[in-house]
Amino acid sequence: MPTQKQSFAFTQKRIEDLPAPKTGRTCIHDTKVPGLVVRVTAAGCKTYYVYRKLAGRPVRIRVGSTAELTVDQARIHAEELNGTIAKGINPQVEKRQARKEATMRGITLHDLWEAYLDFHAKPRKRTWKDDERQYNKYLKAWHRRKLSSIQPNDVAKWHGRLAKDHGPIQANRTKALLATMFSKGAKNVGWTGPNPCKDVPNFPEHSRERFLLPNEMKAFFSALAAEEPYWQAFFLLCLFTGSRRGNVAGMAWSELDMDNAVWHIPAEKCKNKKATAIALCPPAVAILQKRKEENNGSPWVFPAAWGNGHLIDPRKAWDRITEAANLDDLHMHDLRRTQGSWLAAMGISLAIIGKTLGHADLKSTQVYSRLQLDPVKEAVGRTADAMLQAGQLTIANGTVELLESTAEES
């Protein structure tokens, strides 16, 4: 049924006496203020509106209920709205924008972090735990800070402090996390403001050249020998395979071909999204065989201390080892670099080093398969023997043991 329309000069009494229609709604126009309307519904609700046209299109704006406003108050609001519309401004758009800005002003970094974690990091990144570690360590101080208050100069100062305290590489990585949080999580919290990291430049980075030197091997292996077999096996496999710690931590028995001494890392676990075959040297095979004996049915080579998952964060054990060995500025990733550096020092070809470290893509792997894996196995075996000799240690029954002459001297 079409809306019934009437008009008269509004008074308080006439508005109060307006009857409710049996069905639908009745709209009555005020003859004193253009566009001011009172709408009466079948339920008896009476509400003031302003009906006007803006750029040829009808605009309806709620002014308020008759219980909230007197006639004079409704006319004042209506005249203000008419003035705004006359300037070509839609008050509804302004109101929505104001509400949006008010909502945005209340969004905190914690809100953004949770949206980023739930909608982007966890579903798409294997390394989301590392993002969580970085956020908790370097961004938690801004946990309750409003996004609207985080400006580029704030990010620049924070970035500078991180570089001073933790190095430029860590500062750049954490800033990259913050920038990604804004770009990937913003839409899920309703943030439409700018990314404050956009115009903050990174610090120059220089590739790390740190690796275990021959005169450091003994101290490293001695400190490692004092650890539990679990940690011995983990860090030795990081060293002997030259693989990333995340891959070693998530190593599954189903990926291992023990008969042929090959570890097949599936594409979804590789940084370059390409399946990789890693040759296993005899010490690595011995360590894995020992782990298999102590497996207790877990699908993981390094099961977590609780639950059904695998090892996630070996940092505490690593810190103990490097502190006991008095090795400064040695990172876990430097074990991977150590493998490559020792291979190069022994004159191993770059092709085999690339194969050893899993740098080749699937096509390259197929090309190298013509060599089979024998040269690679020989190379990593020679490297492992050299490392053990430098450290005056041996692998017996899958665990580290000092050589007898060294033990007698101590």
Ordered list of secondary-structure elements with their pairings:
Blueprint: E1 4-8, H1 12-16, E2 25-30, E3 36-41, E4 46-54, E5 57-65, H2 71-86, H3 91-105, H4 109-124, H5 128-139, H6 152-166, H7 168-189, H8 214-225, H9 229-241, H10 245-249, E6 256-257, E7 262-265, E8 276-279, H11 282-293, H12 315-325, H13 333-345, H14 350-356, H15 362-368, H16 374-390, E9 393-396, E10 399-402, H17 404-409
Parallel strand pairs: 1-2
Antiparallel strand pairs: 2-3, 3-4, 4-5, 6-7, 7-8, 9-10
Can you offer a commentary on this structure?
With 410 residues, the chain is α+β, with helices and mostly antiparallel strands. It folds into three domains: 4-105, Integrase, DNA-binding domain (Double Stranded RNA Binding Domain, 2-Layer Sandwich), CATH 3.30.160.390; 109-189; 214-409, Intergrase catalytic core (hpI Integrase, Chain A). The protein has 17 helices and ten strands. The strands form three sheets. A five-stranded mixed sheet has the order 1-2-3-4-5, with helices on one face. Strands 6-7-8 form a three-stranded antiparallel sheet. A two-stranded antiparallel sheet has the order 9-10. A hairpin with a 2-residue loop joins strand 4 (46-54) and strand 5 (57-65). Helix 8 (214-225) crosses helix 12 (315-325).
Structure summary, number of beta strands: 10
Question: What's the Cα radius of gyration?
Answer: 35 Å
Q: Average pLDDT across residues?
A: 84
The level of helicity is: 40-55%
Outline the biggest β-sheet. Answer: 5 strands, mixed
- Domain count: 3
What is the overall shape?
elongated
The CATH homologous superfamily of the largest domain is called: Intergrase catalytic core
- Name of the CATH architecture of the largest domain: Orthogonal Bundle
Poorly predicted sequence stretches spanning 5 or more consecutive residues: 360-372
Estimated share of beta-strand residues: 5-15%
CATH fold label of the largest domain? hpI Integrase, Chain A
SSE run? EHEEEEHHHHHHHHHEEEHHHHHHEEH
Structural class: alpha+beta
CATH class of the largest domain: Mainly Alpha
Number of helices: 17
**Distance between the terminal alpha carbons, to the nearest Å?**
102 Å
Strands of the widest sheet, in order across it, are: 1-2-3-4-5
